[in-house]
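User: Could you go from structure to sequence for me? I need the amino acid at each position, not a summary. Structure tokens:
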């Protein structure tokens, strides 16, 4: 099954896509993670993208479209995949359709802006493997240390409050129109993540996939 998961930054897409990935044995593909890897490697692409990411803006459509094209050609995607953070604009969604990729389900996680801002300030990520934690809701066993690889947990530059507000504005303007795009295609399920823990939304996401 080919699945798209979208929602505002901080809606828990990373955790939800990891759970779906394990349950359905299909890879979770996060364009954000792929781009962060490119940044870490110091490649030319990484340096070019750094500026867009640090102030919370989107990287150009053609760059992420190329990244996705290459990634879904890989053999682990032959039984399906979950896209987390792609598409994020209508041109990206159209590009996916033009590639002839059949999307089975699109899940939108809706969480209000106030809750997102509160959540994001507590988010920490492992600087080595990218695993995500939260200072209140998903604490690591040892403060500041990743459970999986023992790397150091840091606040992402784009999780700082002003940047989050900017990211939310961009989300409403550029990504939210995907709701209408996929609703017209009859593929959309909206999940209300307000006042719910990430764990509860994971359950809702899994039942939406079984429906
Ligand atoms: P994420 O981890 O999904 O929140 O992505 C982090 C950052 O990577 C975003 O704020 C964007 O700068 C960039 N990014 C990730 N996916 C996309 C995409 N599909 N289109 C444009 N920019 C993206």
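Assistant: Here is the amino acid at each position, in order:
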């Amino acid at each position: 099954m080919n699945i798209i998961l979208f929602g505002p930054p901080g809606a828990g897409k990373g955790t939800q896509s990891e759970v779906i990935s394990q349950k359905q044995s299909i890879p979770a593909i996060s364009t954000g993670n792929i781009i962060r890897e490119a940044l870490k490697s110091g490649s030319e692409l990484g340096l070019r993208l750094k500026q867009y990411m640090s102030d919370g803006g989107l990287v150009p459509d053609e760059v992420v479209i190329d990244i996705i094209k290459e990634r879904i050609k890989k053999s682990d995607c032959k039984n399906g995949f979950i896209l987390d953070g792609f598409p994020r604009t209508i041109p990206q969604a159209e590009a996916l359709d033009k590639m002839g990729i059949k999307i089975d389900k699109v899940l939108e996680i809706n969480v209000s802006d106030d809750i997102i801002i509160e959540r994001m300030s507590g988010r920490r990520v492992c600087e080595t493997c990218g695993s995500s934690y939260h200072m209140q809701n998903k604490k690591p066993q040892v403060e500041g240390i990743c459970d999986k690889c023992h790397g150091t947990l840091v606040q992402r530059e784009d999780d700082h409050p002003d940047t989050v507000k900017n990211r939310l504005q961009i989300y409403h303007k550029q990504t939210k129109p995907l709701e209408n795009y996929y609703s017209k295609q009859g593929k959309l399920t909206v999940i209300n993540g307000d006042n719910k823990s990430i764990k509860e939304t994971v359950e809702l996401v899994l039942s939406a996939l079984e429906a």
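One structural detail worth keeping in mind: The beta strands are 2-6, 28-30, 81-84, 105-110, 123-126, 132-134, 153-154, 188-192.
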